[in-house]
Amino acid sequence: MAAASVTSSNSVRGVCDYDLLFDCVHCGLCAEACPTYIVTRCEMDSPRGRIYLMKSLAEGCIDLDDDAARHLDLCLGCRGCETACPSGVHYGRLIEGARLFVEQNHRRGFVDRFKRRAVGAIFPYPRRLRMLLAPLKLVERLGLRPALTAVLPRMIHDWLDLLPPLEPDLRPLARGANSAPRTGAPTVVVHHGCVAQVLANSENLNSERLLAAAGYRVVQLEPTSCCGALDLHSGNGSRARDFARANVRALKNSGADSIVSAASGCSVAIAEYGELLRDEPKFVDAARAVSSKVRDLSSLLLDAPAGPKREFRCRVTCHDACHLAHGLGVREAPRKLLASIPGVTIIEMTQSDLCCGSAGSYNLTEPAMARDLARRKADNIVATDADYVVLANPGCEFQIAAELRRRGSRIKVVHLADFLAMASQ
């Protein structure tokens, strides 16, 4: 990293929220909670090191070169450091600001630019993603997917490897409510997301059916826009705010008492709309109101009277999706829900809350680190000898399932909503 004069007139304060940098006391307790530091053992790949890097950039002590950008890019944004931090550092806000600064002030190489632009142009838009996948569905029906991936360039091959099977979704649907919701029943809306509604829509449908069966009145959200998380993680703050405004309008108009997403990353993005739109007088009050209504599926189901459950004998281990555990602080509710099913045995895995390497589009833009983390996660899952690994985020599901497929493992990766639907059949 190139040095620059501390007193340089080019010194900038727009790298991130500068004052938040001083919440960090550099104790280093975050280091062992950081997946990239665990892998590289490089101080600049730890949260403390990245905060020092952000401060140096903000004060003009160093220039934003390839090395500096690389250390910031390698962060997964998992926010495990926030859980470990005794000082309450808002690392998520810091890294999102730094990434916006990188995108505005650093020119990447051609391949990196292509990958990021492809992700940004396709993934937030369900219609575009469906159109892109349509030919692949035909190839899969003809049994030619292995042959196709064998002749594709390595980058495309790795991306396709992460896709779940594209045949019609045969996963069971939960039984809906047997009668109309009781008068005065609390209302809930399920945000269907972008990628989830294309590749894992059963998780949305099962979330709605489970909530209806538990006595909630489920209202539909029209239209559903991307939550903006992908853009926040990649430094596209302008479009993230566009998506946030659209969702705030739709979610407010739904009149729902609670807001749920089958993707924990989307839940956290929506829960932080009040902060994201804090400087917009037209939206800030509505955004804060919407953010305050975000709940987790498992928590809502635990709050509802439980009906009799049939026995479903199996061994289950839980992967704590990063944003569910570190963003929403939800860990025990899914386990309590699973433990309430007769016959289910829960086996805890080592480092259940360590990132699997999915992290939104991270496994597409940083495949080497993502694969390393997927191997670590799979090692811990296989060691439990469970029948199922249950989780609450489709991105984690795709990432972990791909690694277990590569190993020929019998362990099935299932979203919590789909598992509950399966157990109720």
Layout of strands and helices, then pairs:
Blueprint: H1 35-40, H2 47-58, H3 66-73, H4 80-84, H5 91-105, H6 110-122, H7 126-141, H8 145-151, H9 154-161, E1 187-191, H10 195-199, H11 201-213, E2 217-219, H12 229-234, H13 237-254, E3 258-261, H14 264-271, H15 273-276, H16 284-291, H17 297-303, E4 314-318, H18 322-327, H19 332-339, E5 344-346, H20 362-365, H21 367-384, E6 388-391, H22 394-407, E7 412-415, H23 416-423
Parallel strand pairs: 1-2, 1-3, 4-5, 4-6, 6-7
Helix pairs in contact: 2-5, 11-23, 13-16, 17-19, 21-22
Describe this structure in words.
It is a single chain. The protein is α/β, with parallel strands linked by helices. Among the domains are: 18-105, Fumarate Reductase Iron-sulfur Protein, Chain B, domain 2 (Orthogonal Bundle), CATH 1.10.1060.10; 307-423, Rossmann fold, CATH 3.40.50.1860. It has 23 helices and seven strands. A four-stranded parallel β-sheet has the order 5-4-6-7, sandwiched between helices. A three-stranded parallel β-sheet has the order 2-1-3. The longest helix has 18 residues, at 237-254.
